[in-house]
Description:
Layout: H1 2-10, H2 14-33, E1 39-43, E2 50-59, E3 70-72, H3 73-79, E4 89-93, H4 99-128, E5 134-143, E6 146-150, E7 155-158, E8 174-185, E9 188-194, H5 198-208, H6 210-213, E10 217-225, E11 229-236, H7 243-248, H8 253-262, E12 267-271
Parallel strand pairs: 2-3, 11-12
Antiparallel strand pairs: 1-2, 2-4, 5-6, 5-8, 6-7, 8-9, 10-11
Helix pairs in contact: 2-4, 5-8
Amino acid sequence: EALNAIEKEKQISKDIILEAIENSLLAACKNQFGKSENIRVNIDRETGEVKVFADYEVVEDDMIEDDALQIGITEAKLRFRDDVEVGEKVSTEVTPKNFGRIAAQKAKQVVVQKIREEERKVLYVQYLEKEREVITGIVQRYSGKNVCINLGRVDAILMESEQVRGEHFRPTEHIKLYVVEVKDTPKGPRITVSRSHPEFVKRLFEEEVTEIQDGIVTIESIAREAGSRTKIAVSTVDPNVDAVGACVGMNGSRVNAIVNAVSYTHLRAHETR
């Protein structure tokens, strides 16, 4: 039940955690049996019951080289079945009596570490899909001239160099950001965000203008002086469509929505033919 809750809450597969527990218990068996080459741990996926098995190779009685890994044919027939043959693998349960306590102690640290690793992977993949896209973040606080932004499950730093000159944000304020890059690090995904990047305005137009989404209008190029002005060149192959008008919108509704999103930036669309 606990693993089901973890799987749902952190989006980490229960099987991955169970495999980690099995590996940690296998390591614990080294202390109990001295060797682990032929030891395997099995956790019942439904009941959670833990069992330890030892696998032996059946050999001729006079060919035993390692009694921890091999068993003679005579003993194998007595312990297992009469029709066992040389070369077969036989298994027997060797679960220690106090294995429950050992398992709990050994597995705890491994499970916590595995959850952290998998959670980091899940977050990385989740935000990697948002790379080069526009997302909404919540302003947390200023750290010097940089701004700490909460993106949901992770935080990002809006560096001074990626800010628009003259902008100042209040804590808890929702702002739009362009995800420049997502890197995987041992401490979790490191996300570089920007409000001054030219692609920021381009992505906003792609979200706001239906004709761009449908491929009727194409953004040919874009130049931006963050905090001052932005110029974009748009074109269309449909003679019935006004490319500039589509980007501006009725009474400037579309372009005004983008101006509000980029704050101090003023935009002017140019049509290329």
